[in-house]
Design a protein that fits this description.
By secondary structure, the protein is α+β, with helices and mostly antiparallel strands. The protein folds into two domains: 249 residues, FAD/NAD(P)-binding domain (3-Layer(bba) Sandwich), CATH 3.50.50.60; 152 residues, no CATH class. It is 33% helix and 24% strand. Strands 1, 2, 7, 8, 9, 10 and 20 form a seven-stranded mixed β-sheet that branches. Helix 1 links the parallel strand 1 and strand 2. The longest helix is centred in the last third of the chain and has 16 residues. It starts with a strand and ends in a 6-residue tail after the last helix. 47% of the residues are buried. The mean pLDDT is 96. Bound molecules: flavin-adenine dinucleotide (FAD). Flavin-adenine dinucleotide (FAD) binds next to helix 1, helix 2, helix 6 and helix 12.
């Protein structure tokens, strides 16, 4: 039977980081016994597509509040490998990062291929054996737990002293991350909290006007409410698309809508197209406009503060005529428009699904791992890293930072003697 000291299952961001840190921790002489198995024929699909092909490696400021999950645990984990550590680590692999206005960090080449190549190259230098097309189907503990594991894969079996599970979540299943990793964890005794798409676009009722606005972006304050309780409120850029809504603010809010659906308590998502202004403030502005420019058309009035294409669609949606002089607008129509502008109920029918979600909310509870080492508290010798864990970050490089930091912790810890 083939043997390895360390078997890492999943050669995504977390698995590659874990392989590198474990290779560096042991030094070149021992690193040949680190084996990185991945079910995909070519590895790194998600790194390549990330950040629109540019890979948003991390963010200039990373705080626990940028993540969802057990924040106390997340805080402890993040402290182990800061953004500066990430920048220095990538520089050590020849990848310089640049900061963009939004605070996102990208490789100076603007190519995610630079990131993937550097990670793979570093693995090679360290003697890590990367085995693509090796899908793991079962991980069995050898009865005397300190003796390790037998890893069953599509080409045979591998005996390993320690296993790092870095199989990702469910997003983009054709990349290889199809959720089977959760099953592997479950069979080893772990729990898996319900998993739903996060950072996902949302599909609107076909009768809505979104199709007319496809490609248009605008600032919106989104509020997600379930059972009268506000689950989330955030402001940012919304992108109208042919199927519904996308853009950073929608992607960030989607996890709340998806989780509420999963829990059987459907949520409502409201948009305020004049962020920071409540209905009363907008009403006062509108009344001032009516006094000062009574003959100005409704369309022109609203277009002072909103994209014209949007105002046309919204006015039509309200059953009004954009040519109407504002002073002639019946009160009933004005009230309806003001309500649509500041508390627009998006008719969401579904999220766009796993093929479009960027990450998974839910996973193996953080409480089941030691935050200093990422070692399972239930299965000694098993470590978990990356998206398989119940932690998801908002858009902006946070999910990769989570992959690097958990890969770092697990990779370094695997060589420590078990207590
Ligand atoms: C379109 C898109 C854009 C994104 N952009 C960004 C971004 O710019 N910045 C950011 O921070 N995050 C981004 N993300 C999120 C980020 O890519 C993930 O959070 C991150 O890749 C998770 O890393 P991971 O290693 O835990 O999992 P993954 O990257 O999913 O890797 C898991 C690996 O495990 C393998 N695997 C799964 N099951 C098995 C098995 N049974 N046997 C063997 N191998 C298996 C898979 O083939 C895969 O290679 C993006 C995601 C998507 C989909």
């Amino acid at each position: 039977m083939a043997r390895a000291d360390i078997a890492i299952v999943g050669a995504g961001a977390a698995g590659l980081a874990a392989a590198i840190f474990s290779g560096e921790a042991v030094g070149p002489s021992g690193s040949q016994s680190i084996v990185l198995l991945d079910g995909a024929k070519t590895i790194g699909a998600k790194i390549l597509v990330s950040g629109g092909g540019r890979c948003n490696v991390t963010h200039e400021v990373v705080a626990p509040t940028d993540f969802f999950g057990n924040r106390r645990m997340i805080k402890n984990v993040l402290a182990a490998f800061t953004v500066d550590s990430t920048i220095t680590w990538f520089a050590s692999m020849g990848v310089e990062l640049k900061r963009e206005e939004t605070g996102k960090l990208f490789p100076v080449t603007d190519r995610s291929r630079t990131v993937l190549n550097a990670l793979v190259e570093r693995c090679r230098e360290l003697g890590v054996a990367i085995l693509p097309d090796h899908r793991v189907t079962k991980i069995a503990r050898i009865s005397d737990s300190s003796a390790g594991f037998v890893v069953h894969h599509s080409h045979g079996v591998l005996r390993a002293s320690r296993v790092i599970l870095a199989t990702g979540g469910r997003s983009i299943p054709k990349s290889g991350s199809d959720g089977f990793g959760y099953e592997l964890a479950r069979r080893l005794g772990h729990h898996v909290t319900p998993t739903v798409p996060a950072l996902a676009p949302l599909v609107l009722d076909d009768r809505m006007f979104h199709k007319n606005l496809s490609g248009l972006s605008q600032e919106v304050e989104l509020t997600t409410v379930a059972k009268g309780k506000t689950l989330d409120a955030r402001t940012g850029s919304l992108l109208w698309t042919h199927f519904g809504i996308s853009g950073p603010v929608v992607m960030d809010a989607s996890r709340f809508w998806c989780l509420a659906q999963e829990q059987g308590e459907p949520a409502e998502v409201y948009g305020n197209f004049l962020p920071g202004q409540n209905q009363e403030q907008v009403r006062r502005w509108f009344m001032d406009q009516t006094r000062e420019h009574p003959r100005r058309s409704l369309g022109k009035t609203l277009a002072q503060r909103l994209p014209q294409r949007f105002t046309e669609s919204l006015i039509q949606h309200a059953g009004c005529d954009s040519q109407t002089a504002i002073a002639q607008l019946p009160k009933k129509d004005r009230d309806q428009l003001l309500s649509l502008l500041t508390k627009f109920l998006f008719p969401i029918v579904q999220d766009r699904g796993w093929n479009y979600a960027e990450v998974t909310a839910g996973g193996v509870p953080l409480e089941e791992v030691n935050f200093r080492t990422m070692e399972s508290k239930l299965v000694p010798g098993l470590y978990l890293a990356g998206e398989i864990l119940d932690c998801d970050g908002r858009i902006g490089g946070f999910n990769f930072q989570w992959a690097w930091v958990t890969g770092h912790l697990a990779g370094q810890a695997v060589w420590r003697p078990q207590v």
